[in-house]
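Section 3.1: Structural characterization of target chains.
Under the original work plan, the team committed to producing a structural model for every single-chain target entering the pipeline before any wet-lab resources were allocated. The record below documents one such target. The sequence was received from the expression subgroup and is listed exactly as submitted; it comprises 488 residues.
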Amino acid sequence: MRIYSAGLDSETNTFTSFPTTWRSFEEGGIWRGNAAHGSSWVSPVPRTFSRLAAQHGFEYVEGLYAAAQPAGPVLREVYEALRDEILEGMFSSPPFDIILLHLHGAMIADGYDDCEGDILSRARSALPPGTVLGAILDPHCHLTDLMVRSADLLIACKHFPHDDYADRAAELFQLCVRISRKEVTPRAGVFDCKMVGLYPTQLEPMAGIVNALIAAERSTGILSVSFIHGFPWGDTCDTGSKMLVYSNGDAQAARDCAQTLGLVIYRLRAPLLPQYPNIDEALDQALQLQGLVVLADTADNAGGGAPGDNVALLSALLRRGTPNAAFASIWDPQIAILCAEAGVGARLTLRLGGKTNASSGMPIDVVGRICGIRAEHEQTSLGDTGQPMGLSAWLAVEGVDIVICSVRSQVFAPDIFTNLGIDLRDKRVVVVKSTNHFVSRFAPIAAHIIRVATPGALTLDFAHIEYTKRSLDYFPRIADPMSLKEAS
């Protein structure tokens, strides 16, 4: 059996003005045949495919894998070049039996609102009959009819944070092998939950819902269940939360299961809405608590396409004179270069942040001492992989240790501080620009974690997101869009 894998991964925030470019993918990573041996957030997927193919004695060919940090729409020529390289790799002689793709699901390019549907449909139309086409998705995707029609199987991560990519890749591999051997015939069922939201799965009630999805997969005839969270900050016709179920040969059973599970989530829609304090409320709470408090700057999270240079929360920390605090990270390559040129020990007057677009907010002027410089800074990302941060600086300003980076990324782990020399053991408040992916690695050192409703590109006011393409008939804009009175 011959297997081909490739991947294209980026999440598009249509409310962010700066585009995703060739440089974005060069920073995130472009691999041609060696992604399985890399150390990035995409590596666990091809590594799993490669390992399982070797165990089965299958021929495995890895094509292009490319990834970029979330930002605005991908430049058309960039997307088309990457897409075409992936597609060209599928067509060899003899033909492949199985195509396994790693796609995000919320990529938008100039002229393409559904990049993944475009890739899958082009592949399906050109592949020989009988070729199995499967893809692993980020749950923060836009599930489209074109994607479902074109692929034999789509499987999304069940966890947010997405620490289960390797498990889902193994699931996709094994089911696609069974499809190729004609042991199972997947039939898809999709249920639109008519919701827009954010659903961390380590918290209830989502933790229980994930367990329910896993239990449903043990039901007779059910092959796979994925809850599509959706990506609220991408304006498409398909933005929103959906349930995707595959049954073995019975489309009605798949639709019924998707509806049953989707209604479970719908009836919990109000408890699932994030209720986070604003900056002043969060700082009031933090300064009354004992032990280390980690504050999450949720709206300026580069992992959702925000610039990462909004300094509203940092400004509040400094205004209050918060002692023993640390802040990571501000995306400000210009300031990082100035700090590197001045050198450790220098004192500088700098204008931090507020440089990219309207969501960046206003900059702040500070006087600080440079305490550390690292030319190739790095932090641990998901799955023990590395996330480059580029030239980075540690700037101490009025009791706050600030990490300034040259490569955009959300914060995943404490070593974004410690690799620069910042000791967190004496800190009272630590601020991270992230929404949820930071939790697993910061929870062991934090006495308290508070997610903060900050200003930025990732507003949590889902009822008032200015969609122009998505129907406005969704919760929380509408209290009960399904008119299920007993669920209100």
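Residues 279-459 form one domain.
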